[in-house]
Amino acid sequence: MRVLVLNSGSSSQKSALFELRGAVSPDPQLPLWEAKIEWNQGSAVLRVRNSRGTKTDKEVSVGDRQGAIERMLETLWTGETGVLKGSSEIEVVGHRIVHGGERFRTPMLVDDVVTAELENLGRLAPLHNPPALAAIRRAREVYPQTVHVAVFDTAYHATLPDRAREYALPGDLRRRFGIRRYGFHGISHAHVMHAVVAELRVPAEKLRIVSCHLGNGASVTAIEHGRSIDTSMGMTPLEGLVMGTRAGDLDPGILLDLIGSRSFGGKCLTARRLIERGVRFVQVYSDGEWDAHADLAGNHTGHCAATDVPIHGLLTDLKRRGLFDSTLVIWGGEFGRMPVSQGANGRDHNPKGFLVWMAGAGIRGGASHGETDEIGYRAAVDPVTVHDLHATMLHLLGVDHEKLTYLHNGRNYRLTDVAGNVLTRILA
Fold this sequence. Notes:
Number of helices: 10
CATH architecture of the largest domain: 2-Layer Sandwich
Helix content: 25-40%
Strand order of the largest sheet: 5-4-3-2-1-6-8-7
Distance between the termini: 44 Å
CATH superfamily of the largest domain: ATPase, nucleotide binding domain
Radius of gyration: 27 Å
Strand content: 15-25%
CATH class of the largest domain: Alpha Beta
Mean pLDDT: 90
Low-confidence stretches: none
């Protein structure tokens, strides 16, 4: 029996094809074919190899995750890494799912009902469940006649006793919102337990094990007599150890202070929440005096340090939650700074040449438009007017700036007056 396994992680997509004959051995089995996609900020590489030793590396689109998964699956029967004649030779597709919630405590046959419930669980594991669900949907399209089985990381921790499962919160609150410790990396911890049993040749019922899963995500589990009795991760994969993109255990007061404060990071967090709830226009102001008529270097260095990381976090968060491609992000100010000094170390206002950047919906990443002269005084190459900027923004919102008018004093006016050109060079 040929089994294809898909493991959709927070930073990678791993896959392997196994041929099972007779009883399944506890020892690791070499795959006929395996592939991995590492999802990075600006690029992604698909690496494939088969049991004959053939290897290939290909770049794939970061923004088209499902398309990249389809390309990966096609290498099973096409190209030099192919080991099958076609998709019909695969009998079972197994999917690793991080969060199974209360219901999914055993492996499940995947159908439309299961995928709908998994979509609802995405809020509890936003880095993991949505990518896994995307892989399930694409795999069901590529292998429509094949049996698909979901295996859950949380299932192994279904044996947690009350003392480890429950949080110290009022019972009615826990029951109302389903608050409890689920635990994660269960498939890995169960494998470690079986490996220890095989290596020591001691029954699981006689062992007490501390299992450590260490990677971009990390957790520790206490295993007694083959059962999980405590684990470091909680209701979501955020709790516990410090990880690649997660802080681990964090004083809840820190988040409350950030949300309630006027910090730029707190504002970006609030902005993401508003966008997630469907608010159509959100404006985020940076506190502090950027108008550096003195000490330009000290002023801008400090303010950039306070805003760069939150902006990066906001854009990353929007991408992970599937909101980036439907959200137009615009960053700018009221003017730039002059290329000559004001006083000893300051700069005066410059309305003739300054920067605005845009990201998200409809914007081509890495594109630029226009340049200042060689001293940075005025826009010299392909200058962009305010009307051009507004025309482009309206275009990205699905509005033709030449047709949209409003009545004022008995006359129809355009938002871009009688000017404005869409900057097609920066559009995706």
